[in-house]
Amino acid sequence: MSANAETVQSRIEIKDASFSLWLRQVGAILRLELKKNFFSRRSVLVYLLALMPIGLLTLVEIINPPGRTSQQFLSIYSIFYNAMILRTVVFFGCAWIFMNLFRGEIVDRSLHYYFLSAVRREVLVAGKYISGLLTSIVLFTTVTVVCMLLVFFSHYYAESSRLFLDGPGMNHLFWYLTITVLACIGYGAFFLVVGLFFRNPIIPALVLYGWEWINFLLPPLLKKISVIHYLNSLVPVPLSEGPFAVVAEPTPAWISLPGLIIVTALVLFAAGTRIRRMEVRYGSD
Amino acid sequence: MRNRSETIIFDNVSKFYGEILGVNRVSLEIPSGITSLVGPNGAGKTTLMNLMTGLLRPTRGKLTVLGIPTDRPELLFRKLGYCSQFDSFPRGLTGREFINSFLMVSGFTRRQAGDLTVKALERVELLPAADRKIGAYSKGMRQRVRLAQSIAHQPSVLILDEPLNGLDPMVRAETIALFKQFAADGLHLIISSHILHEVDMMSDRVVLLNNGYVVAEGAIHGVRDEMDVEHPAQILIRCDQPSVLASRIFQHSDIVEARVHDDRQGLFVKTRSPDQFYLSLNEVVAQGQITVESIAPVDDDLSAVYEYLIGAQ
Fold first, then answer.
1. What gap in Å lies between CA A50 and CA A53, rounded to an integer?
2. How far is B140 from chain A (nearest CA, A)?
3. A167: Cβ–Cβ under 8 A, 6 or more apart, which residues?
4. Which tens digits make up the pLDDT trace of A209-229?
5. How many CA atoms lie within 13 A of B116 on its CB side?
6. Cα–Cα distance for residue pair A37/A33, rounded to 1 Å
7. From A101, B164, B202, B293, which residue has the greatest number of CB atoms within 10 Å?
8. Cβ <8 Å between A108 and B149
9. Torsion angle, CA of A41/A43/A48/A50, rounded to 10 degrees?
10. Contact status, residue B62 vs residue B13, Cβ threshold 8 Å
């Protein structure tokens, strides 16, 4: 130990307590978190989840001979997207990614390093949320695109090309991607808060999962208290019956988009309030 | 009363974990220098440290560090560094990345963080291993990298929970020297340790805790002096005629007990007024009949204070 080294060093002060400081801090949190989200052992599960629909579609395309029109494929993809991508991959993927942002650190007993840094805890929430968002958006929009290309282009290349270049294909893809991004925003905020409030976040996650699945059975008013209702309202190929149908009057995009973002902001505000009062007691977690 | 912005102030602070007591009604004012928290396991040392760093919130009372409330981490951790006892790290980082990353989270620019990281690693002599994964570090290296992380931003207050654990004797001595240097520079160092002789060696003052209560605080000798009535000071006088010395000094009323040492070359004395006793002893020795080799207090150290205050309970 260099006790004789200069001990009173010129202290480097952090002068700006401003938005630019917060941005810098969010950037530093992002660097740490993105590395963890993409390359840690925990991320293997999300990769497997993301590969599941791609693998399934590949298998189906191999064993199932073509025999449908591209218009039929639009409906097939709508069902596949709703059941497999949105309600399974995006839902559970977001649950895993966002719940682990804080809960994972508590399990690893490393959250205190963040709490012992000169950073507002709300900035920490923002940084972690954005990192989760970037991770989930990159993974799940990729899944959305790859699955759509697999459904359409594995057969009828020429017809599918026309559908995308001259028909509604690109517009559909845009809306599916928008829904995926909005799902990451909405579910992400929910699961981040769940990870902060609950020691065992699996139970509230399963409750939400059940609630989202029975959404089509609920009366119109209750339908609107869910994420899936607003996302389903944006689906480019609406289904008229079954669990993916929007039986209640669909919410227009100009309401559902900002509405979802406002609710997300409120949920994140709750997370910020919670984290300011949060204690680090790994023993009791 | 010192200026609030220069001290750490506990104002009637209590912390309960549900119904379990962490610390109760702690009122302390900690100035700069080395203050050691001493007590058995479960006494409340780590709870006090976690309260000071905002990892825990007090159930009752108020707490400020250099005038900053502990629920303002964005201000607090510009002044405070904490080397906790948690032997865990974010996964997959090297020592350099670990320190550098959290400096940047605190708002330092990449360049500032890089410079501070190197300085901190140099101070704990870990620079050669800076680019190895922390997962491959030995226990002593992990302890040192935590210490480096806590001092990297050059804090005014340094809180160290069992900082000497896992260090070999050479590094322990160097670390203690480093702490003394920090104290000489005007830093507040709050250290918890089980190794009483090391605490004795480096501390300016101690806070003795037991079962969540502060049982004594202040300079070690001051604390010992306050215990003279209940626990008379013990002094060993090495001399050629202990029996004669015993008969002479027993004439003084403040002597509680005098006992000749087993080797008959010394005398144990217990007195409630050591200062008065030393004066009387001077008079006896001045008469020239007895040759005194040495005079040494036997229980004027932290171990004795600990034994009397906590060991007995």
1. 7
2. 13
3. none
4. 999 888 878 887 787 788 888
5. 30
6. 6
7. A101
8. no
9. -170
10. yes
Is the Cα torsion angle A54, A55, A61, A64 positive or negative in sign? negative
Task: Dig out the tokens for B68 from the structure.
Answer: 């900053």
- Which of chain B's residues have a Cβ under 8 Å away from the Cβ of A105? 90
Q: Give the position of tokens 């209590």.
A: B14
The neighbour count for residue B293, using CB atoms within 10 Å, is 10
CB-CB under 8 Å, B73 with A120: yes
Q: Where in chain A does DSSP place strands (E)?
A: none
pLDDT digits (tens, 9 = 90+) for A14-73: 655 688 999 999 999 999 999 999 999 999 999 999 999 999 988 887 776 666 666 777
**Model confidence, pTM:** 0.85
A243 beta partners: none
Selected residues 15-54 of chain A with any CB under 8 Å from a CB in chain B: 17, 21, 24-25, 27-29, 31-32, 35-36, 39-41
Token pair for A34: 């993105």
pLDDT recorded at residue A10:
41
CA distance B47 to chain A (A): 10
The answer to whether the beta carbons of residues B103 and B117 sit under 8 Å apart is yes
Burial (Cβ within 10 Å: 0-12, 13-18, ≥19) of residue B197 = exposed
Per-residue pLDDT at B139 exceeds 80: yes
Mean pLDDT, each 10-residue run in order, chain A (285 residues)? 46 66 95 94 94 90 68 82 92 95 92 95 96 97 93 76 83 93 94 90 91 82 81 79 61 81 90 92 65
d(CA B108, CA B291): 66
Q: Are B269 and B249 a contacting pair, CB within 8 Å?
A: yes
Tell me what pLDDT residue B200 has: 81
Query: B132 and B95 in contact (C-beta within 8 Å)?
Result: yes
What ipTM does the predicted assembly reach? Answer: 0.83
Nearest to B130 by CA among B89, B170, B179, B97: B97
